[in-house]
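Chapter review: from sequence to fold.
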Amino acid sequence: MSQRQILQVFEQYQKARTQFVQTVADLAARPQNTETLQNAGVMSLLRPLLLDAVPTIQQTAALALGRLANYNDDLAEAVVKGDILPQLVYSLAEQNRFYKKAAAFVLRAVAKHSPELAQAVVDCGALDALVISLEEFDPGVKEAAAWAISYIARHNAQLSQAVVDAGVVPLLVLCIQEPEIALKRVAASALSDIAKHSPELAQTVVDTGAIAHLAQMILNPDAKLKRQVFSALSQIAKHSVDVAEMVVEAEIFPAALVCLKDPDEYVRKNVATLIREITKHTPELSQIIVNVGGVAAVIDYLGDSKGNVRLPGIMMLGYVATHSENLAMAVIVSKGVPQLSICLEEEQEDHIKAATAWAFGQIGRHTPEHAKSVAVANVFPKLLNLYLDTESSEDLQAKAKKALKSVLQKCTYLPALEPLLYEAPSNILKHVICQFSKVLPHDSKARRLFVTSGGLKKVQEIKAEPGSAIQEYIFAINNCYPEEIVRYYSPGYSETLLERIDNYQPV
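The token string follows.
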């Protein structure tokens, strides 16, 4: 065989390998083909091609494996069991930038499915190779490495700590300072995934100066970047008062409030989440948010949102109101109660309604004035219906009951209490009767209205256990009226009168 013929054979072999690996990569891009490819044993055929002499074949083989591993955990597990990861990790340090991006994609695709698969990626030494990739000149390589790191860190604190121990955090902070938007996004996302698990991990991110660099990007025109920036800041702020104060001190307010009107709903939700995480800690932090117009901005945001996007805003109002009478009044003055009432009516998900009920409880539990603001918004019947509805979740029933009781115990606005005399079960009714027993002795106009409206008659119909609290409250109410009035509205009194007529002998 001549030299030319031998070269032709090698050329045909290279073409065949190139065609094979490209075809597999194209087929792997469509979900319907993955099972057939797996059954055909494509993993074992792709593995040797990762070490092929031709760089494009290596890269395309890695791309095909990444696409397969990305679909489900079975295929990702097949990559692990096929001993493919060590080859990828070894090649990460040796090959060109195109291969490095493809290899990092495979690591990410495997790690995303479960903590166990992410641990397998860590165990094969991937983190050291990914750290080296984060130091590459090429931004695409950095981005691919940061993405893989993010998918490893997001699962749990142990994996996140492994990422931190590898020295990743300072490099991610450098990445968010790079000019490429895509790299900034992924680096911010990775910082968010690291910080979310524990105060210690969040502190590690803070110690590298991440907050200041994240704060500079809150008004960036790129919506996807803003999503990640606000997510990272909220995952940092949630852990403790100290780090929440550091986020506030980065002077992101009031500028961040503008983003509550962002066209992107995830940006809006992440901003509301950040505000919630800050306000939950202390009255002082809540007061800062109130002072910059945060409560009014969140109430507007609730009016413009629907579904789960509303949830952090609802909870933020509840947290603000929890801290003090004045802060709860700030929510009331900003028209928070009517807006929450609309949320309670419009939302279908039980967990959102439960959060809204909880927020009402925090607003109304302070003083009679606070309770009245909840009462006049006609919230009591809604809470009662949610509590009594057998289709409500246990959590919703518990939250509605607790909110109703805590606000009722402060409410002295009788027109809102009276309908509950006819609808409330005994465990709620006793709180209603208690409030009447407190108000009626000191208000003659209310005493008269209570008779003419039928309230006194209804109270006489209540069957109270002897010696119970509710019986004591009824005695207190009855003591506000002449004995003959109480008798007149007592059950059976008309029959007694008729008997007296029957027994009466005219003179």
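Two observations follow directly from the output. The two ends are 148 Å apart (CA to CA). The CA atoms of residues 3 and 9 lie 10 Å apart.
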